[in-house]
Amino acid sequence: ANMLAAYYSKGADSGQMFSGLKISKDADFRKHLNKYDVLHIDIQWFLANCEDADKVVSLFEDARRFQIELGCDENKTMVIPNGVNYQKFEGIRQKENQDPYINVGAVLRVTPIKDVKTMIYAFFELASRMPNVRLHIMGGVDDEDYAKECYALVEQLQLKNLIFTGSVDVV
Fold first, then answer.
1. Is the pLDDT of residue 117 over 60?
2. What is d(CA 92, CA 107) in angstroms, rounded to the nearest whole number?
3. pLDDT confidence tier of residue 38, bands split at 50, 70 and 90
4. CA distance 76 to 45
5. If pLDDT is split at 50, 70 and 90, which confidence band does 171 have?
């Protein structure tokens, strides 16, 4: 999160911080560098001050327990599930041993609020260090123009191991 804030924020001059990374050589690297007003929320500070909150909401039970462990009052915590029925996937067979790829999946809507482009750039960095990794971006498109920008970025970065699956039924 700090790296993302440093990259986008007008309040920083972080070109030198990224200069040693492969991503800094990309043609679009400077396009968004330090161009935006960024609101950076420090989750640790938030949790440390949760005594002032009326409710502390988590997406899953383990996160709620972690918040309690960090000091949140158990009576203030609650879970609103994130909508993915993970039990639906318990019966999926394990991948074959001869598959050399490490598969990573992201279930999301392709929309600017999900910042898929940053995920693509991050995967670009990972794939440059680990060529046997594959990213599956699973989910529908909410913004057709943004999706086209994401597809073009994947093509520009020549990421052959990034797959957009389209909509998936995970609920």
1. yes
2. 17
3. low
4. 17
5. low
Q: Is the dihedral angle over the CA atoms 109, 58, 84, 124 positive or is it negative?
A: positive
CA–CA separation, 70 vs 58, rounded Å? 13
Query: Chain-wide mean pLDDT for the chain?
Result: 84
Helices (H), the chain: 2-8, 15-18, 29-32, 43-48, 61-69, 116-129, 144-156
CA angle 115, 117, 122 (to 5 degrees): 105
Residues whose CB is less than 8 angstroms from the CB of residue 14 and which lie 6 or more positions away in sequence, other chains included: 6, 7, 33, 34
Which two tokens mark 68?
Answer: 């309690």
Give the count of beta carbons closer than 10 Å to the beta carbon of residue 35.
12
Instruction: For residues 137 and 105, give the distance between their C-alpha atoms in angstroms, rounded to a whole number.
Output: 6
Quick check: 116 and 151 in contact, CB under 8 A?
no
Residue 10: what pLDDT? 75
SS3 10: coil
Tell me the one-letter amino acid at 85.
Answer: N
